[in-house]
Amino acid sequence: MHKYAYKINDVYILTDEIRPNLEPVTLPFNMYKDPVKIATAYIRWSDERQTDGHSLYIQEREIIARAKLEGIKVIVMFIDKAKSAYHIPAQKREKMLEMKQYILSNPNVTATIFYDESRITRLIEDFVLYILGPIKTIRPDFKVYSTKIDGEWDENNVHVQARLAYAHDESVEKSRRAYDYHKTEIIDSHNPQRPASRHPYGYSKSTKKDGLIEVNEYAAIVKLIFYLYSFGYSDKKIAQLLNQSDIPVPSAEGASWSDATIRYILKNHWYAGDLAWFVRTSYEKSKRKPIDEITLIPNHHEALIGPNLWNITQFFRSYKENKDRMDSPFILRDLIFCSTCNVKLKAKNMTPSKSKKKYLYYLCPNCQRKINIDDLHSWVLGDFSYRWSRELKHYQNKINKILRKWKKVLSSKIVTTNDQIVTLRYNLSMLEEGQDYYNDLKEIHELQLSSLEKEKLELQKVSEKIDMLLNDELQFELIDRFKQDIHNYSFEEKRSIILLAIKKIEIDFSRDNHTSIEYRLTPYIDIETLIESIDDNSETA
Length: 541
Known about the structure:
Blueprint: E1 4-8, E2 11-15, E3 38-44, H1 55-69, E4 74-80, H2 94-105, E5 109-114, H3 117-120, H4 126-138, E6 143-146, H5 158-187, E7 203-205, E8 213-215, H6 219-230, H7 235-244, H8 259-267, E9 275-277, E10 295-297, H9 307-321, E11 336-338, E12 343-344, E13 346-349, E14 360-363, E15 370-372, H10 373-430, H11 438-470, H12 474-480, H13 491-501, E16 502-508, E17 514-519, H14 525-540
Helix pairs in contact: 2-4, 6-9, 7-8, 10-11, 10-14
């Protein structure tokens, strides 16, 4: 429902928008029972940029004037702020639905007024079918007025239908022009520019004549958010920390930091120096597309987050999106396997109710053998500390050698994939329309070709990522994490470091819980997984 109600003369205005020049009021409980006939009004504008403009006041003034002309004494206004009538149909707009329910619940409401057809719909039929239709089914005498048409607004009138069609066509053309602009200026341009919109947190408009944006004093906050997240801290905990520290929020409208704001920043490719466009699955839904479906222009501007830190945070996002709790005492979960059963051990809390002592185990779901977490953690963390005390000084060179080796593997795979693409294109060109199964063969070749071209592009992106990782100064900071005494870290911090360092732990219960650890070659899990898949395919080929 609405957040605020204001009264101007005899007009009640229901809105989510603060009106600084007006005092909020409470709607009288008996206003709907009075014998006075009431008409509602509906106001809408499409864009946030119009919020501070004159659209609201123009519509208010015209509607009030029309109400007086029709002899209507009281108007309740429902205002949909910054809602597109082209992308959001009438039956999905919050204030439109509130108005419909309000009308149906109050028999004294005999009419509604709007500014013009483009305010109620850009889709021709949605308002009539889903809002007005149900109202008139119950109240056939219900009246509708537009400030642009004399007399009643009749949805069956030819002139009205023409106006509805014009409003729709106008939006279709605007949408086409906007897409063409984005495609030309953002995707196809040799120097793509970010369209005019609110600057990402940590950036502001440049004081230079180029009109571009540059990092500002809040850039350090963005880096802190990524840094804390890379140590295992949740979106919620980071938001709480920023609120406790009185850090300004990205939006002036927001009262405080939230986990949703933190998630938005952590997913925003802008901070990695890339321009991402066409990110959402649709205009109405904020759900993001898969990364391979996003229009991504790399190295577009100065990055705040280097490739090492970005790579780690995105890896942890996949864990946390699968409901992984980094602050759990089971810091080794999903990494431990029973060597006899070859199955993953489960975290099990066997603490009896009212017990002061905790009984926490890792349990094999197959053979039901278990090991106490304190015993296993003590051994694993001891081995971890011993390993890094010996190898850390050589680790930097070791990582760089591995990354260069991986780059050679990728280069070889790209050459092989490109040869396959050339062969497929040739075979496709040799197909003749008259031969048997031509359409099936053509479709198979085209699908294979599309798959190989996509694979080649991904391989090239990973190869470029390796170049950036090799040149990233934060690589040293990442290694420095292993220098500290891991026993002094929190659960989140231990979990984050272990995920980057350990690939698999095996326990042989038949040999007195003999434990072995398979360490990762590098903290670049996604690249390591890809290289392993290439090697596996090479061995089976």
